[in-house]
């Protein structure tokens, strides 16, 4: 069994260890490994999503060394070295594996239940980027090239409209029209990319609540799952928090009347993130805080509908029309967000203080 081979590469005998599946991650596979008093988290990297796994190891090593030197107080959960000293184990027939220490006094949430949780998570993601403000982000390799490149996602969408499933195009006609009507969001991104006031930073790129560890008092400890850490704009992290924290339901919800934008959660994201990043962001960046949510929700809608038109080759489907429903769900969330723009932008935190 491949697990036994992997454990042996770390000096752990499978016969003396208990191994059980762990977590709810959708990308990588994880197992909890216990041998006596020692507890570990074993993870298999999804080679389909991350086609250059050693780039992940490079990035995490570079970040870990920097934080260890300049911010030794930060809880950085690094992969343990194998017996050969390398940060990953590669089995040609099985894939790439890593072993982490399992922090038994910490826990994570799968869903944001309170504004306090949203605040703590926003603080942690803001702190992570702030602590790396003087790290040269160009040293990092793009582990998923063009991951949050909105103009490229729009081009992929246009190509799918032209070449995709004709029957599905008819079924999705109204959704396609709505997405084309929002093309101004792509132009806004292009303006951001051309603006020197928007700095390329070390960005996590996957700021769902489950990527934050909390202590026993539900205070944030650190961010985890650093596979998508790479150069980017702050709007990626803030936007992903808005997309996944603001509504009480996820993109899987088929009852669109349940989709709403919860103001206390928005305020928690603003105050938590800017507690750490206020002094780092330019005036132009602060003015784009609300746009971050528009950017990320719109891009995800584009990705869902593109996959739908391409016959569900990327996300797959659990029922007919699944990715169409997901895209429509995100469009409703975007509409709810834009309806509240005047109210949400009253928060003074979204503007650069004097």
From TrEMBL:
<dbReference type="InterPro" id="IPR050249">
    <property type="entry name" value="Pseudomonas-type_ThrB"/>
</dbReference>
<feature type="domain" description="Aminoglycoside phosphotransferase">
    <location>
        <begin position="19"/>
        <end position="246"/>
    </location>
</feature>
<protein>
    <submittedName>
        <fullName>Phosphotransferase enzyme family protein</fullName>
    </submittedName>
</protein>
<dbReference type="InterPro" id="IPR011009">
    <property type="entry name" value="Kinase-like_dom_sf"/>
</dbReference>
<dbReference type="Pfam" id="PF01636">
    <property type="entry name" value="APH"/>
</dbReference>
<dbReference type="InterPro" id="IPR002575">
    <property type="entry name" value="Aminoglycoside_PTrfase"/>
</dbReference>
<dbReference type="GO" id="GO:0016740">
    <property type="term" value="F:transferase activity"/>
</dbReference>
<keyword id="KW-0808">Transferase</keyword>
